[in-house]
Amino acid sequence: MQKSMSYLIRFSFLGLLGCQCIAPGIRNDPGAGSAHPAELGARPWHKPDIDKVLDAFHLAASRADLQEYFELLAPDVIFMGTAAEERWTLEEFRNYVMPYFSKGIGWTYVPSDRHISFTKDGQYAWFDERLSSHKYGELRGSGVLRREYGVWKIVFYNMMFPIPNDMTKKVVHIIRNKTEKPAPPEILE
User: Fold this and answer.
1) Could you give the 3-state DSSP secondary structure of residue 85?
2) What is the reported pTM?
3) Which strands, in side-by-side order, build the sheet including 151-160?
4) Is 155 in contact with 144 (CB distance < 8 Å)?
5) What is the pLDDT along the chain (189 residues), one digit of tens a residue?
6) Sign of the C-alpha dihedral computed for residues 129, 131, 136 and 137 taken in this order
7) C-beta pairs of 40-46 under 8 Å, 24+ apart in sequence
8) DSSP of 104-173, one letter per residue?
């Protein structure tokens, strides 16, 4: 019974994701990863499945679709936002997102240049991707997915702003002034 339910959940979930991808700009690196797709054959944990989950995640955020957005996250997910204090569990992240999504306010991040790798047993995948936002410009996302009863769930997501190396000292100085923490002398040099 549990096995047939697992198949039903997997196929229902993948069917839903299949019609909701936002594929523009996705370019996978065929050489990236610890398990080559050819080694994985037709197994359910290959790169297109991960792409579908991540694309559906970004699409649900863009549509402010609270239910779909959170169905893609594992119960023990950790979401790291761009600010230092933004480390959220599932419930904390839901509380952060709900006021926006309930008003129909979402956020659009268009992914590109995504790289996906797998553990040898195919139970975990990790990725990094470039994100483009009209409001914020270029960002990066990285994270980990875990297969649960044949369905991929996001267990960790980290969003950050890439800082050009030649701007690092200036940005660190601005952040330190805002947080009022004294900078060690080598930072200000």
Assistant:
1) coil
2) 0.70
3) 87-88, 73-80, 151-160, 137-148, 124-133, 110-118
4) yes
5) 444 444 343 433 333 343 333 333 333 333 334 444 444 443 545 789 999 999 999 999 999 999 999 999 999 999 999 888 999 999 999 999 999 999 999 999 999 999 999 998 889 999 999 999 998 999 999 999 999 888 999 999 999 998 888 988 898 888 888 776 555 555 544
6) positive
7) 40/118, 40/122, 43/122, 44/10, 44/147, 44/150, 45/118, 45/122, 45/123, 45/125, 45/147, 45/152
8) T-----EEEEEEEEE-TTSSEEEEEEEEEETTTEEEEEEEEEEEETTEEEEEEEEEE----GGGHHHHHH
CA distances from 145 to 75, 118, 127, 162, 179 (A): 12, 9, 8, 22, 33
Contact 138, 130 (CB under 8 A): yes
Identity at 139, one-letter amino acid code = L
Q: List, in order, residues 6 or more apart from 97 with CB less than 8 Å away.
A: 66, 69
Token pair 């923490």 in the structure block, residue = 181
Can you tell me the distance from the alpha carbon of 143 to that of 79, in angstroms, rounded to the nearest whole number? 9
Specify the amino acid at residue 92: E
